């Protein structure tokens, strides 16, 4: 390519960026010759840059509308990604854009448009025809419904997909169904309502054994959404591959009184152990200011004497994490052995003396009979670090 032609080529791309339709019309015969390093035509580029409809129309009239770039994308793929308006999509499709074209990752335009948060059923239906497979899988086995849930599309859009045959229990390569993505990404109540009308997907597990309810607790899904899932049959005691229940994750991440009470009042058990021997209560001690939830768990049967795999019980964990004295008082009042030892021979007092000890906690432990002369001389560990 000569220097002159190279300069002219750049002018075409610049004309797209500047919406310079007069230049493009004047050089209409050369439009077909233009491709960039990504093997994109000017039509691809116009959709990427959200060019005016008049420019896109001009390019459609002079270029192959279904040419693919190096990523296997057509102009319609980019239009669905960048400018999924009814006007642009209608014009492309009426002029022969293939709504069944797959890109290099097996995405249909339908997959891509389901990543656009503000689309309505009207835009969605433009890329669906009677023969369109609404359950088409991409290279990660994700369907359009997976993306609609991942990107928090409206309940109306999700309902439209489901009414057109989208399967709510279709799993991707990670074993996740659409409801997993909904719970992972702060899904809307109306979407969860649509997805849980039947219980077909509500307890599906991914490859880590996690149900949507696990994800709801890990990602702090709104309480009203969690409540609806439980009402629709979500199993509150389901265990993942690490043996954690939703209550474990709620005590680790969400820490919401309403959710803890919801689980316990719907058959949730307070003492399941994970693979490390940790109960929800033991996990909760790593979080500060949670005396109210600790009380709820204790009132619902949390066993304070249970030990983890290192033989630490509730009092060890409470002292290790320097919890409020009011929590220690609750534990001691239930008769937990104040001088119990873990696998390293440490008592709760040892842990209370480590890091930055609380003077009030140390005083309480000693008052209740903690042995200051236990092996390792725990009080020596606290020298100069009282607060």
TrEMBL record:
Keyword Nucleotide-binding: no
Domain of life of the organism encoding this protein: Eukaryota
Gene3D superfamilies documented for this protein: Ankyrin repeat-containing domain
ANK repeat coordinates: 71-104, 140-173, 174-207, 208-241, 242-275, 276-309, 310-343, 344-377
Protein name: Ankyrin repeat ph and sec7 domain containing protein secg-related
Keywords: ANK repeat, Repeat
PANTHER family attached to this UniProt entry: ANKYRIN REPEAT AND SOCS BOX PROTEIN 2, MYOTROPHIN
Matching InterPro entries: Ankyrin_rpt, Ankyrin_rpt-contain_sf, Multifunctional_regulatory
Species of provenance: Anaeramoeba ignava
Pfam family, one: Ank_2
PROSITE patterns: ANK_REP_REGION (PS50297), ANK_REPEAT (PS50088)
Keyword Glycosyltransferase: no
